Amino acid sequence: MKRVYVNEEWCLGCRLCEYNCAYANSGVADMIKALKGREINPRIHVEESGKITYAVSCRHCDDPICTKSCISGAMTKGADGRVKVDRQKCVGCFTCILVCPFGAVSHDDAGAVLKCELCLDNACGSPACVKGCPNRAIVYEERL
Question: What's the distance, CA 143 to chain centroid?
Answer without folding.
Answer: 19
